[in-house]
Amino acid sequence: MQNLTAPDLAQWLADPSRPAPVLLDVREPWEIATAHIAGCVDIPMRDIPARSEELDDEAQIVCICHHGARSANVAMFLEGRGFKHVFNLQGGIDAWSRQVDPKVPLY
Fold it and tell me: Which residue among 1, 9, 62, 65 is the active-site one?
């Protein structure tokens, strides 16, 4: 698992020469309703073991949660399942709100 900062993710998403990653939001539905990044695939952390087959194990996947702890656990889990290109968004959506897009609400 590699860690990725919010500004680095923003730069990646803005770079048309790079394939866009899968943004995997592992927060609870109420959290996603409160604040989210457009284009995310929403699978709560508790559902990842049962639903990981919905994800392409060759895709570049950026795991996202509130502050980065749950997403780090999911990233390690996915790597253990054979996923090859997994990243954790350091600081989670909180860092995204503070460092990239202040329109995304803090909670």
Answer: 65
